[in-house]
Give the backbone structure.
Amino acid sequence: MSTTFVTRHQGAVTWAREEGLLGEDTRIVADYDPETAQPGEIVIGTLPAQLAARICERGGRYRHLTLELRPELRGKELDATDMRSCNARLEEFFIQRASVMPARSRKLTHLCIVSDQSLQNLLPTRMAGMAPDRCVLLVSAEMKRKGAEKRLRHALEQSGLKQIDVIDDVPDHDMTAIVAWGNRLVARLRAEHPEHRFLLNLTGGNKLMSMGLLQALRPWCEAIYCDTANDSVETLHPLGKSAVALAPDLLNVKLYLAAQGFSVRAEPRDDRLLDKRRGITQWLAGNVRPLEDFIRKLNGAAAYYEANNKASQNPNLAPARGQIEEDATRRLMEAGLLEDASGRTRVPAAHAGYLRGGWLEEYCWAVGRELEGEGLIKRTRFDIGVKIDPIEQTRPDRYPLNELDAVFVHRNRMLIIECKTGAQLGDEGKSQSILNRLEVLGEHAAGRFAEKILLTTQSRIDAKTAERARQYRIRIVSAAELPDLKHLVREWMNA
């Protein structure tokens, strides 16, 4: 660790040597360029604040020669004795710049420290007043190994950003190395893009990376922190700015999933057909408790068309029992979802998917459409039957967890819903598999702040299943609560 004493006064040098403050290898210089400061170097002197600040920014240490100078000694060349009479001493200061050098243009580059979580880097790029012309992704060797930069790049591209650069081998330990690397980075960026100003997003990376890069880039970069837990963006440098609230609609379903590392398959669907069936769908959901047996009959008849069917011998519906089942049969017949076949009520192949459980997914759609009509959510922020693939997946059919029954995105969080109309939750093995699947989907597709709902037409949930769901932070919405799904979704939106 080198030491440099910046002074033109021999008395100061003599005093420092007599006090044992200077090593044999200490350089004595009359002038000093702070751009030459090396990480860990000690610089002693009475330098102006801006020069001392730059030494600190480059990772150096500044020790100020402090004197309590009496009026009669001002302007006089002091010797070592005079300096002692003025209580001369060295005091180390860490000086931080509170401003950012003005740029020549309003073009903006975001510098993003890549981490496992892409949302915190993506969200500020979607905010009014922060939208960048260009993003530079700073990638450590560990994040490169995990492919984290590919997820963020994919999300930024889906967001419409055209100019994205990737810089590898960012040091993630050794503060001296991080600061030195940051100084080289900012010099390079300023030389290559003199027309840009820079915004450093410090949400990603570890603490050493954030502290070191802020120290090195402080003169040239504004710095922010995306606090997704509190829905805000904090300005870390320059200080004095209030936090800016994150708008609730910065992300749609596709963009949210892109940030999680997934692409959504473009599959055709007739939204008008879903809207046409909304009435019967909502009626089924509203009467699901007295129709529990009838729904089992629908499942059994519709299963006839399943490729691996072993139980259903025909698609005929068992006779209705009671007024509510007769009413349900009549409504489904009038909607063209059931047909008469020689006096027997039959599930037609064209509507088997809907009748075997697709209607419960469409109920989630109906809830989204109502909330859309109330101006609470946009169409792009809810969907059903969303088939997804990892962005690096070359064989889409090989990904086992490739469909989300229903999703809502609000306040840059995701609500993921799994729909079950069968008796699976009464089978311990099947219920465990369902809960495991929803837990994995929630972790990988929906992320850290995801809420997970298991929607079921069953009335009774066994204690073991309920306990596992609680451990996985999965809310089970059974038959009694099903008609209130819209209220539950609104509660989630306002939480």
